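ok so dumb question maybe but i'm new to this and my supervisor (M.) told me to 'just get the structure for Small ribosomal subunit protein uS15c' and walked off. so i did the thing. is this what she meant?? sequence i used:
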Amino acid sequence: MVKNSYISIFLKEQEENKENRGSVEFQVVSFTNKIRRLTSHLELHKKDYLSQRGLRKILGKRQRLLAYLSKKNRARYKELIGQLDIREKKTR
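this is what came out, is it supposed to look like this??
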């Protein structure tokens, strides 16, 4: 639960700056929060296929945002995935 508490602290810091809600970092953090909530929901409700579909859509959105951020600013990308404790994308 340390990860979730850190995300909530990070979100509170971001919410103080209302103009940063459209930033890539804020969007990735909010998608990560939704992903973790849906994952815990799906552990209880294994046959909830609509939630599985929603989870896959959010995962794709987060993946595209992270790809954009890694192209534009590699340092911010590394810092963000370190803070959120998510894996770096695989390279071919």
